[in-house]
Amino acid sequence: MNLKWRLSSANALAVLVPVGFTVLVALACLFLYGQLSGSGGLWSNYQKMAEAHSVVLSSEKSILQAAPEAVEKAAFQQHLQDNLAGIGGEVVIVKNGEPLFSSRSFGKIAIAKLLEAGKAASAAGPAEAASAAGPVEAGGIDYEVRQVNLRFRDGSQGSVLLLTPFDQAVPALGAFLLLLGASFAVSFLAMNLWVSFRFSRSILSPLSHLRQTAAEISRGNLDCRIAEEGDEEIQALCRDLERMRIKLKDSVHTRMQYEDNRKMLISSISHDLQTPVTSIKGYVEGILDGVANTPAKQEKYLQTIHVKAEQIDQMIEDLLLYAKLDLHQVPFNFEKTDAEDYLRDCIEENEAELARRQIEITLQTDLAQRRELLLDRERMKRVLVNVLDNACKYMNKTPGKITFILRETPASTIVEVRDNGAGIPAQDLPRIFDRFFRSDLSGLRKNGSGLGLAIAKQIVEGHGGRIWAVGEEGVGTSIMISLPKGPVSLRPDFVRSKEAGGG
């Protein structure tokens, strides 16, 4: 449920339910009063009471508006008696303490009681008259008394007592209103407590789970999943926090991988540099100790030192290039290049060296027409040289054969470099493009940085392509390079690198 809708519903329930409950209590009380009293119900008594008060007020107004001498006239007295007769009321006019007119025969004691009650009602005021004076029994009937004081024409003091039967009023009005007020207050309090409990539970329970999960994450447990629960807004918060947890977990995993790679890099560099450095130290010590005591030996030792130094230089160059490629700091300069001509040039540049190693290199093209590719010529040449170098290292046949095969698919152009060397074990094929990985074929493990194919992979991916290997141990290996046709779909990081001019 939406949190805003839940708030609105809770506020509405907190008011409407108590109001509805109070209305039901009022209806029940009215029904029960009518059933128990047999007087037509509390509402009908309210109407009778209102009618009686209206008649009394009308009569009082007539008295106050009439001249004092009119009160002594029989016609006016009959008028007052007729007004009150409809509600069962009576009229008593008193002059100097003596009854001047009475619509009903009352004794002196009864009149005295009525005068006393009338004085109390007049002193209390209209609103509190009934409660101040209370009912007065006169002639066997309980009356409420309303007194109007006046001065007769001869200066005498007098009063007009307006009497209404007490059974026409509603004695339980105050209690009824008090009951309704108490019902509303109790139901309002109870409903608010219930709404607060339900509403707070729907919010506090998910927040409590979030707090517990956050505590687990802060202790390093990034596998603690954040469940979606609660209202829509809280579920959205849970989803965002879960995405944040996943990204944090991925970043920690990536950082750990980087740390492992760093350790492996240091270990591999140390191991790979140790061999040529040890050789250089050995030959230098041989020269210093006089072991190389002839010019021929000294020249041989110096040539070996030079070769080892070049190996170290090549390893450092490969390492720096791989680091730059890995950080996408190498710009690519793409040019439209004819694929077949480019491979022929590459073959011509390496043909003499391969022939010296007794390896034959050829080009086989299966293209239906000339195909131009967007290539960084220098970088792609590094890829092909690294692939050829790897094929030469693991060539165990004489004569060796390396074939460049050029073909295409609907979406890409494929360059296959196939050799008939020792091949690569099936379990090693997916790993040969990892840095520092070298397949340990028996008797054929060669020295090198272990970065050649890893660099090739970075460069091919920088061209928007893909590189992989297929082959069979003892038969040979094929390195497949797939390059997109048309414009190169560059990775954004390579584009930024080129625009920044990084190198």
Main traits of this protein?
single chain; 503 residues; alpha+beta; Beta-Lactamase; Helix Hairpins; Heat Shock Protein 90; 3 domains; 12 helices; 12 strands; disordered C terminus
Run of helices and strands:
HHHEEHHEEEHHHEHEEHEEHEEH
- Stretches where pLDDT is under 50 for at least 5 consecutive residues are 126-133, 487-503
Portion of residues in helices? 55-70%
Largest sheet: 5 strands, antiparallel
Q: Structural class of the secondary structure composition? A: alpha+beta
The CATH architecture category of the largest domain equals 2-Layer Sandwich
Number of strands: 12
Number of folding domains? Answer: 3
CATH superfamily assignment of the largest domain?
Histidine kinase-like ATPase, C-terminal domain
Quaternary structure of the protein = single chain
Can you tell me the CATH topology of the largest domain?
A: Heat Shock Protein 90
Which CATH class of the largest domain is shown?
A: Alpha Beta
Tell me the radius of gyration. 56 Å
